[in-house]
Specification:
Ribosomal Protein S8, Chain: A, domain 1; alpha+beta; 6-stranded mixed sheet
Length: about 220
């Protein structure tokens, strides 16, 4: 008696077995895969998660810095355009910015606008004969300014053209700052003095060098 032929395709004979084996491999891979970390919901959660493994330091109690007081003023005031404009106007009225002035630690010079370069060079070289001088050593700033004004007015009334002002180098002043030397350019360019001064320049070494200046006066 002949055996009956199978009524299904032998190609699908082990299909169920293959499917079960594939499912087992997928489950095994999923168990080996690391879990996906949960994203923090907000900044606070993120911060707490970031410092979760931080260990506090041993030591004294921490110091809490005080917040700056809102009423504290800065060491230097901010620029004030209105105030600067008023100061500029004040200098114009005084005539203290009519001169072209150069100032350094060792040398100063200045002249009225349009003054001859040739005459300025002669003054700087000490080629004008010094006809009189005044020594400001020992005077305060206010005393020195008054003495300079009186000296120059008197010198011009006597017909003198070039005079010498000995102001010193400020070596005996606080912090060795040349107070009188720093003030001279302003004294020579304001008040009645500005109308009679043509130019001034640091003297040559034989006339006092950085501690004195030549002053050229207008003719009467």
């Amino acid at each position: 008696m002949k055996k009956k032929k199978a009524n299904f395709n032998p190609a699908f004979k082990d299909l169920r077995e293959r499917i079960e084996r594939a499912r087992g491999q997928i489950q095994e891979e999923e168990t080996k895969r690391p879990p996906t970390p949960e994203a923090p919901q907000n900044d606070e959660d993120y911060f707490l998660k970031a410092i979760s493994d931080v260990t506090p330091l041993d030591g004294p109690k921490r110091k809490i810095l005080k917040a700056p007081q809102p009423n504290i003023k800065p060491a230097h005031p901010p620029p004030d355009d209105k105030r600067d404009g008023l100061n500029h106007l004040h200098r114009l009225l005084e005539g203290s910015i009519e001169m072209d002035i150069s100032f350094s630690d060792e040398y100063i010079e200045g002249s009225v606008k349009g003054f001859s370069r040739k005459l300025m060079k002669r003054l700087k070289m000490g080629q004008f004969p010094v006809q009189d001088y005044i020594d400001l050593h020992g005077l305060t700033r206010q005393e020195a300014e008054r003495a300079v004004r009186d000296f120059l007015v008197r010198s011009r009334s006597l017909g003198r053209r070039c005079v010498l002002i000995v102001h010193g180098r400020g070596l005996n002043s606080p912090d060795s700052f040349p107070v009188l030397k720093e003030g001279l350019p302003r004294w020579l360019s304001r008040g009645p003095v500005r109308k009679i001064v043509l130019a001034f320049a640091t003297a040559r070494p034989y006339d006092g060098g950085a501690g004195a200046i030549y002053v050229l006066l207008r003719k009467r």
